[in-house]
Amino acid sequence: MKKIIKSFVFVLLLVFVSTLVFAGGDKEQKTPAAATADDAYAAVRGTVVTMSGPFTDNDAIKFDQSVKSFEEMTGIDIQYEGSKEFEASIGISIEGGNPPDIVDFPQPGLLRNFVDKGYVIDLNKALDMGKVKSNYIQSWLDMATMKAPGGDIMAGVWGRVNAKSLVWYNKKAFDAAGYEVPTTWEELVTLEKTIMSDGDTPWAVGIESGAATGWAMTDWVEEMMLRTGSLEDYDRWVNGELKFDSPEVRKALKTVTDVWFTDGMVYGGRKGITTTSFGDAPKVMFENPPKAWLHKQGNFITSFFPDNLVAGEDYDFFYLPSVDPSLGRPVLVAGDIYAMFNDRPEVRMVMQYFATGASVEGWVKAGGAISPHKDSQLSWYTNVVDQKVAEIIQNATSVRFDGSDLMPGAVGAGSFWKEMTAYVSGAKNLDKTLKAIDSSWPQ
């Protein structure tokens, strides 16, 4: 009987939290739906849902504020504990048999480790997946589907995300020069040639980042894997099933080096790329006159721009076009995926909520978050950069997570960075570079 009652209550929870309708009008004359919703909330009012993740400082504050209206509506207290050592600490609690109810993973590769061991609850069995699936494009669902001991499961739902497939430029200088924003790869190539014929340098590129030198190069390779080949090839590559020393990866790499290694294409030339900090690289766009005109990087890069620049006036950005138009509009992304480790009605209710735009609406309006949800509104964004990034993500035909973050650490944050840096600097040839990365893949 208890199981029947719990199941009935849970059905009510899913119905009302997924629609997220607040009852209006005279509180003394509630509609039947509002009254039933109140009954559903009564079943979870006063409960606590624990959550762990990497949000600290201002991000933690914005997260808490973004879920406040949900907590007030349902009476559930979402207790988020953020840690700067999250990746090291989360394994201790999960492996020790005392996991939080929900864990926020900034890298799906780390989540996959716990899925492999059977710790993660299959959301197919816990949520109204019809509503979840209708609120994400297929790519987000694909990236949340992982192989557990008993077969594939839906391991999580996506929360805050960001995009990397962006090309930045000095808008005032760009407009004054009469250049036009390219919408196809052919138009981008034409723009490069026009800039060079004017006696200038098209691209500002830098991959120096201390111990992490090379990561910016891996982003370019990942972008071109999505723009010259299929999603299936990208997934096989990330999983170690498609070697670096393969025609598909070589094709993507050539697309990058056709830009980077062509004389006059990059400020400072090929050798300057490895000695220029990724954060300093775009600054030359804002010199007078600009020393370079274009810079590819994620939306975080604006924090490295010179002070007092105004988005939409002093600088702007456009979507990096696909090399092959048949591949649509792929976008390379990063973001947070929320996974469920304890199965109770209130935890299910919170997870269902995280699959809606309402869960990040407050954060979006405060700035610093992009929603992957179909039911989110562009009108929520209060700055032009976030709004335009959100529009690019909403218009994407496919998305894939940063590949190096999905690969084993020895590759994604090791040989991939190191060997690409050696190749770009000229210290190694391509054949040796690709073989070295392949040989570093854990057996």
Question: If you had to describe this structure to a student in words, what would you say it looks like?
Answer:
The protein is an alpha/beta fold. Helices cover 45% and strands 13% of the residues. The protein folds into two domains: 2-161 and 336-387, D-Maltodextrin-Binding Protein, domain 2, CATH 3.40.190.10; 166-331 and 402-439, Periplasmic binding protein-like II (D-Maltodextrin-Binding Protein, domain 2, 3-Layer(aba) Sandwich), CATH 3.40.190. The longest helix has 18 residues, at 2-19. It has helices spanning 2-19, 32-42, 57-66, 68-74, 86-95, 108-116, 129-134, 138-144, 171-176, 185-197, 215-228, 231-238, 247-260, 269-275, 345-354, 358-366, 384-394, 403-406, 409-425, 430-439; strands at 48-53, 77-82, 102-105, 145-148, 151-154, 157-163, 166-170, 295-296, 315-319, 330-340, 398-401. The chain has 20 helices and eleven strands. Helix 1 packs parallel to helix 15 (345-354) and helix 11 crosses helix 13. Strands 1, 2, 3, 6, 10 and 11 form a six-stranded mixed beta sheet that branches. It has a three-stranded antiparallel beta sheet with strand order 8-7-9.
CATH architecture label name of the largest domain: 3-Layer(aba) Sandwich
The structural class is alpha/beta
Share in helix: 40-55%
User: Beta-strand level of the residues, as a percent range?
Assistant: 5-15%
Please tell me the total number of domains.
2
What features would you highlight for this structure?
443 residues; alpha/beta; D-Maltodextrin-Binding Protein, domain 2; six-stranded mixed β-sheet; three-stranded antiparallel β-sheet; 11 strands; 45% helix; globular; disordered N terminus
